[in-house]
Amino acid sequence: MHNPDDLKYTASHEWVRDNGDGTATVGITFHAQDALGELVYVELPEPGRQVSSGEACVVVESTKAASDVYAPLDGEVLESNQALIEAPQTVNEAPFTEGWLFRIRPSDPTQMSTLMDAVTYTAGPGAA
To answer: Mind listing the domains of the chain with CATH numbers?
Structure first.
């Protein structure tokens, strides 16, 4: 699966989309969901929660294992994808679109520049 060029990536397989309005959308990569297997449960952060880069803020459970998802940026959670509560497999089916996990207002937008681009992620942590 192609890692979209308009996203930024972390070594722990999260992706970040700059929404262009001071917010960002966060999800897990195709590589991450593929390694986990079919998701059966997602525990999402509450809106208003302050998170720090590298902090575990989401739990995803599959038929294989449970795994933490880490905040890629410091900031405030604005919204969680509530549709995933009833349909966690959406993360497997559409990890870069409908399977997003949460939206955040970064407290330091310059942190985006510390994340990997698609080429770097694909050659490194995201290598199949």
So the answer is: 12-117 (2.40.50.100)
